[in-house]
Design brief:
The protein is α/β, with parallel strands linked by helices. 40% of the residues lie in helices and 22% in strands. It has a 7-stranded mixed β-sheet with strand order 3-2-1-4-5-6-7, covered by helices on one side. Helix 4 links the parallel strand 4 and strand 5. The structure holds glycinamide ribonucleotide (GAR). The site of glycinamide ribonucleotide has 15 residues, from helix 1, strand 5 and helix 6.
């Protein structure tokens, strides 16, 4: 049985690309990238999905009267495509506790720091790397974790560290964290979680 994966994105989608490449190279064992949902119609990630013939949709908060309706639209798509695992890969929208509880232990997120540092409310994208440089830590990295009701607070699945260089800018650090950590651990974490889900199904 294949684990059907939905990837939720908002922007460039290089983490989505890492998953696409891993699938192509046979490194996403027993997984299928079945669906991409973007909350931003201009997300370049949509082009990546199209290029690789992955079903993709835009569900934008602005198109719905309430957050509830917005999340219902996402939920319907996830159920329609019989998604087993939801991967937040640069998805810049906070999901409600109600939504998260609909998919217990079935939502994972990649965050560009070593949790519990530089995470939580207000820490996303380039802001994380700005905060890392401002604080002056010498080691940063990335974390893949389960999503629960606490922002960036769910159980950690994988982490990888990256050294901060003396001349780093937020942009150079962001690039290295993506290349050296995020693109490496995200496909691995997806495979690990898919194995767990498979075991759960077999034990049922
Ligand atoms: C990645 O660095 C990801 O870890 C981060 O946004 C970037 C998206 O890049 N996510 C967060 O900050 C979530 N809190 P991508 O669109 O190229 O994958």
């Amino acid at each position: 049985m294949l684990t059907k994966i939905a990837v939720l994105v908002s922007g460039n989608g290089t983490n989505l690309q890492a998953l696409i490449d891993a699938e192509k190279n046979g490194k996403l064992e027993n997984c299928q990238l079945a669906l991409v949902i973007a909350n931003n119609p201009n997300a370049y990630a949509l082009k990546r999905a199209a290029e690789h013939n992955i079903m993709h949709f835009v569900i934008s908060r602005k198109a719905y009267k309430t957050s509830l309706k917005y999340e219902e639209a996402m939920q319907n798509l996830l159920l329609e495509y019989k998604i087993d695992l939801i991967v937040l890969a640069g998805f810049m929208s906070i999901l409600s506790p109600q939504f998260i509880q609909m998919f217990p232990n079935r939502i994972i997120n990649i965050h560009p720091s070593l949790i519990p540092s530089f995470c939580g409310n207000g820490y996303y994208g380039i802001k994380v790397h700005q905060a890392v440089l401002k604080y002056g830590v010498q080691i940063t990295g990335a974390t893949v974790h389960y999503v629960n009701e606490i922002i960036d607070g769910g159980k950690i699945i994988l982490q990888k560290s990256v050294m901060v260089q003396p001349l780093d800018t937020p942009e150079s650090l962001q690039k290295r964290v993506l290349e050296e950590a995020e693109w490496v651990i995200l496909p691995k974490a997806v495979t690990l979680v898919a194995q767990e889900l498979k075991k759960e199904k077999q034990d049922d």
